[in-house]
Model the fold of this input.
Amino acid sequence: MLLKLLIVEDEPFIAMDLEAVVSAWGCEVVAVADNKAEALALAASSHCNAVFVDLKLKDGFTGVEIAEALRGNFHLPFAFVTGNAEQLPQDRCGAVGVVEKPFTEAQIGDLLKALSLQA
Done:
């Protein structure tokens, strides 16, 4: 199954890096969001089947709220790609994985593999 990913990231250069790595791994980025409202709207409309979520976005530490909605309302597997992993709850909100920034291509590849098993 082709992984169609929504990236929730407010730093444009990091989002572009993630897009490039995701594409290099043969997956498709269907949308990028930089805040909670946009992320939830795109989760509903973009036909994604997995999501990368940053914890801290333009509108604050809303990554946990986004993750809860992805799991509860949309039943989408997700992983955190964040520089604030220590801020995550102990259960990581049910994330498939967590990668700290700065990330490597191999780390993102491992997340994509794990997400594809859940999608």
In short: The longest strand covers residues 28-33. The CA atoms of residues 10 and 110 lie 22 Å apart.
